[in-house]
Amino acid sequence: MDDRLIIAVDFGTTYSGIAYCFADQQNSSPIPIDNWPGANGIDVPKIPTVICYDKQNPQKFAWGGSVEPQADSISGFKLLLDPSQSRPDYVPGISIAKELQQLPKTPVQITADFIGAIHNHAIEEISKKFPKDYVQLCRKEYIFSVPAVWSDAAKHATLKAAEMAGLTPVQLIKEPEAAALWTTKKLDVALNSGDVFVVCDAGGGTVDLVSYEVQTTNPKLQVKEVVPGTGGMAGSLHLNKRFESAIKELVGEDQWSSLRSSKGFQLASSLFEKEIKKGFKGDFDDDGFDDDDEFYVNFYPAKLADNPDRGLESNTWTMVREDLMNIFNPVIDDILKLVDDQVERVKVKMGGRSPKYIFLVGGFGSNRYLMKRIVNKYPNIEVLQPPDAWAAIAK
Ligand SMILES: Nc1ncnc2c1ncn2[C@@H]1O[C@H](COP(=O)(O)OP(=O)(O)OP(=O)(O)O)[C@@H](O)[C@H]1O
Ligand SMILES: [Mg+2]
Questions:
Q1: Contact 236, 88 (CB under 8 A)
Q2: Does the beta carbon of 12 sit less than 6 angstroms from any atom of ligand 1?
């Protein structure tokens, strides 16, 4: 049989997803897997990239949404596939060598275990919608999206992990390219031939950029890369790391050593991840800033000494806009530099002409403060955030 099943794997630093389509069917558009274990029956396009090995038997592990929040889990292992990437200096306390030592397996093996698990689940899900035997017999082809800045060694490591998980053949595509294809399909913007747009995919670990020129729009949109992928490690995870160091500084070294492994800190981190970081709008208009961004971080049941000057009272830290600015700004400034570098490269290539659009995608790409800062910087470029950019890559 010659029917082909194409499976796209978006292996992300913080979240991963899978979409598939049967290549030979008319009008086949990719179908995302949205039924994942541990998601309480709610449809979700992506699951957390975490894995938790059984202490006795490292062949056994829990993954994704099934990993208990307080478990000794491993996350962020995608970044360990590329130790050559330079880490921003505002990210405190990362020692790659130390991180690698603490792992039960190599990053490639861990990645293989994780990818194998999500792939098996995807095949089970596809077999619920199409005859199992048919799915089994289809010739499978895989598409993996990798950061535009990935080194050859990291690409090789990704391929190796896929192979260990039994996924072959694999074609690699650049993450921003995958995002671009989706965005142009989804966005209601009238693209004309000759238009140039920048795609900025800001995720958990990396920020990737690439620019395209529209070749034709009829009968089908065709684009050509004008500036190759650029990017860096300025993902949203760095905000979490900076939140952590802000707390360390707030409570002082002594209290920090016990706080960091406490329930109270875990809840505070999860509040930061789920609400504070996402809700921060960094409101400003032409006259300056508004003052209503305030967030309350509770460390209960920890018993912390008050530090009223810094807003810490009764185990609750009142974070004001300035605290959040301190966390966000170095990361946002880095992203702006990356965007600027890409925009300048476009101009050089296009004889001085600026790109017409910047498409902001990825989880961090949906952040309103980031959006505002970019809009502010480029009054003559239209900046767009597609509505479901978070899950765009796999599709
Ligand atoms: N509004 C927001 N502001 C800031 N960060 C956000 C927001 N919404 C989601 N995030 C963060 O975006 C990340 C998830 O985005 P995404 O799924 O694009 O990344 P990823 O694919 O895991 O990472 P990468 O592409 O870098 O490997 C998470 O770290 C999440 O906390
Ligand atoms: Mg991603």
A1: no
A2: yes
Q: What is the pLDDT of residues 309-368, one digit of tens each?
A: 999 999 999 999 899 999 999 999 999 999 999 999 999 999 999 999 999 999 999 999
Crossing angle (nearest 10°) for helices 152-164 and 107-129: 50
- Rounded to whole angstroms, the Cα distance separating 349 from 343 reads 10
CA 237 to centroid of ligand 1, rounded, Å = 8
The residue whose CA has the least distance to atom 5 of ligand 1 is 364
Q: How many domains does the chain have?
A: 2
Q: Are residues 274 and 346 in the same domain?
A: yes
Burial of 374 from C-beta contacts in 10 A (0-12 / 13-18 / 19+): buried
Token pair listed for 206: 């990396």
308 within some domain: no
205 within ligand 1 shell (Cβ under 6 A): yes
Domain that holds residue 22: 4-168
Pair (160, 189) in one structural domain: no
Are both 163 and 284 inside the same structural domain? no
- HSE, CB side, 13 Å, CA atoms: give it for residue 265: 20
Spacing, Cα 255 to ligand 2 middle (Å): 35
